[in-house]
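call fold(seq) -> tokens
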Amino acid sequence: MKKTFKTFALMLLTAFALSSCVDVPAPFNLPDKSSSSDGGGSSSNEGTPVTCAQAVELTNALADGATSSEVYTITGYITEVIGAVSRNQQTFWLADAKNGGRVFEAYYANLPEGVTEFVAGTKVKITGKLMKFVNSNSGQVTPEMKNAIVEILPDDGGGSGSGDTPVEGTPVTCAQAVELTNALENGATSTETYTVTGYITEVIGSVSRNQQTFWMADKKDGGRVFEAYYANLPEGVTEFVAGTKVKITGQLLKYVNSTSGQVTPEIKNATVVILPDDGGGDGGETPPVGDVINVTCAEAAQLVDGLSNGGTSTETYAVTGYITETDGKISRNQQIIWMADTKDGGKVFEGYWANLPSGVSALTVGMKVTMTGKLMKYVNNTTGEVTPEIKNGDIVILEQGDGGQGGGGDIPGPTPGPGGDEVTELVNGGFEEWVTGSTTPVGWKSASSASNATLSQSQDAHGGSYACVVAAPGTANKRLATQEITLEAGTYTFSFYAKSTTADKSQTKGGYVPVNTDGSVGAYKYGDFFDLNNNGWTLVSYEFTLEATTTVCLVVMNPKDSNYSKSQDILVDDATLVKK
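ret:
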């Protein structure tokens, strides 16, 4: 009987041990109850004491995805609680002041004994190892501590302040912040903390978890000068508004788009303080950026010739001339233009994604303008072609043009797609980059069977220098498809411009296909057919909704012969994907 009982007890113990390994969420670790000296949840094994700001700096120094070897204890205030309690754990954000926003994350921290949930405004200290978490889709970095031991501290009345940032950095203007950022290595973050003061000129996207992205300048109509990427909303503020004077605090980051090479000077997850509007920052002139040297387009091109390949001038220049050609695509209040010293002077100097002045919806050929910024000698790494340009220059319109189109090209069409947040997973939508030695545009070759069309490059472009030719399908439909991309649940609009290559009518439609984990594809989903001709470009749009995170290929169909259209080559250009 004893043997039977022991055997039964052993079976129960084994079953309990096995069941304890089931249904435990990934972040869950049992709290270290043995370290509690008084049952109040305080940890006797404390780490090196640091502030939230110091913890962020230490985390940024780690490799992506790495965890510190040392244990730290961070003291601060809970500024936001994320989600409900799960198995005696809950996630929250910390800062060095009660209204400090999202500075450091405690990911699934352990609730102290007797505490049922965490509450914003509570002063705490958390103990554990620092981790540099990197989102595999967006690349966004989160400094965090997983499964921290938490001790609730008495509220000493500190940290509330009157809206000021608890720890300010070196004060700089937006222009100075850009100059400091440009001096960093690509992708690098400054070791020093800065406080940038200026005006919000454009707000990007909606609020997500009490954060929102915006652009700043040293005046209200200064365009896109410096970006606050997912900045923390101050306490009591529901969203950021263009025209507001602010100061943001954090470390400078030189973000480089891996596809286009475009550089964005920014601070990620900045702490924001709303300042009183002092009436400054108005006016139509270019914001003060130190000594500005006035030059013609020809002089600017000559100065660029003297730079090294890929080099940027140390001085700021104001280039005056006429717009001779524009890219019809307007993206986030920016546009690409070419300038010359005469209206019919051709392509002499480029304004690469120049900032539209306040109240101006588009720049047009024939306008006389002044563009201010630093000169850059851009070299195409495939063709070796040199382009003299200013990136993200500020524009002042001196004379309105006649609205005509000079220097070749098409009259600008509407921006593809309705309003929304541009999805960067769709790369090379302008078909400007091509795989060396092939006829494949970068980003437009699927690993699955979604891509089945023969492609080639054309200089008959809607915008930029190139478009993609999708060859005549003959007796079977052919598809131009993107590489596989993973999209979150939501509603999207896939848009592109298309054009026939002969006088015969053709058609096209946009769509997508889900891609399974084994590389096979599901059912193709399409919008309506759009009729095309060779007299101009047609905007094609398709809206679709994903109920869950899904890997897809976006597709453009060139259909076979039918009663409605003739099989022929079609041109595709300026594709975009936006999320509502």
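The first strand starts at residue 48 and ends at 50.
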